Predict the structure.
Amino acid sequence: MKNILEKVPSNRRSRACPGFVVAALRGGSGKTIFSVGLIAALQRRGRVIAPFKKGPDYIDAGWLALAAGRSCYNLDTFLVADDLIRDSYHTHTQAIDLAVIEGNRGLYDCIDLEGRTSTAELAKLLDLPLLLCIDGTKTTRTMAAVVGGCIRFDPDLKLAGVLLNRVAGPRHEGILRTSIEHYCGVPVLGAVPKLRKQGFPERHMGLVPTPEHDWARPAIDQIADIAETYLDLDQIVRLAEALAPKQAPTDPDAGPDAGSVPTLSVKTPSTTVELQSEAPTVAVLRDSAFQFYYPENLEALRVAGARVHFCSPLERSEADQTPLSFAQAVYIGGGFPETHAKELAAADAFRHQLKRRADAGLPIYAECGGLMFLGEALELEGQRYEMCNILPAIFGFSRRPQGHGYTIVKVARENPYYAVGSQIKGHEFHYSSVISWKGRAESLAFEMIRGTGIHAGGDGLTYRNVLATYTHIHATGTPQWAPALVELARKTRTP
């Protein structure tokens, strides 16, 4: 088998931003730890790194963003069309030294026999080299056969190197390294031993979200130390630069500016919006209870003409009885309301004003955790916690996922945001379910083609200008969402 370095072209002048995809044989092999460590360690060396996450994920993306000091964009080939994936990568790597894309699940894991939505498919789509994380626990020469099988399974994939994890000691590392390099022709670019201390505690959805703890930054520093100690960072960078993708046609000036509010006409995938001088304000609930937002969604609201204002029911003043008086619309993402149920129940002024304004027609769009917050109550271990009482549903929780994976919904009924008959792709991951519902089937806007949803094959609870759903959407793949919410905010004035 040829060494990967023999494939390096001699002329690199037409290459785009270098980068690599971090993949593994399965989940739990160390992709996030390696990705965060590589980003943080290279940042220390003065490199400007653009982080990306493949697959429906908010928590890993939060760690990658914190390590890089910039937004982590999502590259998911189920949610977003291929041409928009390429555009996103090239737009968000302008003036960047290196891109790091963390894959999801196993390298070739996907939704069909052809490999659609796999990490390998994304690496080929972007023409990027790949680093394969290997859990070395209780194995030696067999791993050479495994790596060789990954290479032969798809010869078009640029597997640039292997990263060993959980190595038992120098002898174990030596056997793994020699076997893989001899039989597979790819270099082993690092070997991390079994570590006694782990700075990334886990919860049922994976890594703990970064906003919940003030030790997040020290944890990243710790994993950066590990990367500097055990990984060949210089060789990783050299390979990424040598195997950089060809420049794809894109307009580098077309990328959204996450830090500003547009003041001129701007283009979206389907329309051009002339922004008014008095842009409506969309309140986004963002705190440790509600934190699952794709940066693309927030940018899409700005591009559609809104001012985005972050607020929280967990941070309030006793003197402030109208915490949402500034908002013309509200967007509530997912998160962990169940771990903040007591605090959310105590936010009386916030909850009561949100209900009063929803009753008056305030546009509200909510996903997963936001859906639960809009319900009557959460029930946890026999305790009831009052929520906003906008939607006639009480939510309980299970130890096992009640909905997990990609979703496809058909818009079956009238609602404020989507045309009847259209289809939306998204994803769901929730341990909660409706344990009491006083609503009617016709108040569910969506029919589930794929996924679990809220009740009896339906999703998308509606009430006046409220739509709340277990399905998370990605604004790039659902371009009608942001303009609909912003236009409704312009038209609707509530006390």
User: Anything to note?
Assistant: The longest helix spans residues 170-184. The chain has two domains: 4-242, 258-491. Residues 221 and 438 are 50 Å apart (CA to CA).
